Amino acid sequence: MxxxxxxxxxxxxxxxxxxxxxxxCSRMQRHDDGPAxxxxxxxxxxxxxxxxxxxxxxxxASVGQLGTIALIGMPLIGAWYSDARIGIVPDVFxxxxxxxxxxxxxxxxxxxxxxSAIVVFGAFASAAVFSRGRGxxxxxxxxxxxxxxxLGLPLSLLTLALACFTATAVSVIRDRGTKPIxxxxxxxxxxxxxxxxxxxxxxx
Length: 204
Fold this sequence. Notes:
Layout lengths: L1 H24 L17 H16 L4 H24 L8 H14 L2 H21 L6 H14 L1 H23 L8 H11 L10
């Protein structure tokens, strides 16, 4: 019964993310030179996140860890859905959780979280500058920063490397890498996979 409860909680969290993404997308306009819209049924991220709740609970995660992942999942699913729909990651899905994490870092003096976030952001921000927002957008850089803050430096680098490799492979296969691609879905899915890795990625 506990697994079903967490599946329900995670499904609700993902649903909130999708609803928030719908709200944001209805008030934003896709850039003409941005990535083409991707088909993504709302049930897909909701069901996947609900299954993640079952897997993480089955791995013996603490209630604090399970709850933290559920909370983080809302903006992650929102970023995934928004980028797939309009090719934009709204700041609310990255800056709000980053602000909360920054407050926690200041309260608990967990400076390694800030260092991890800054190092990852620096790498992706450089890519955004050199590509002028086409190969790598600023929304992707902020999402990568959130990845660094949540997963820590070693695991976040592996996660983002997996996301980059997969996105590049899909782009090359689809159109030989000549068109921009929505990168947030790959980052988010890679993060969800990282949550089931048996590492102490979050100190809760």
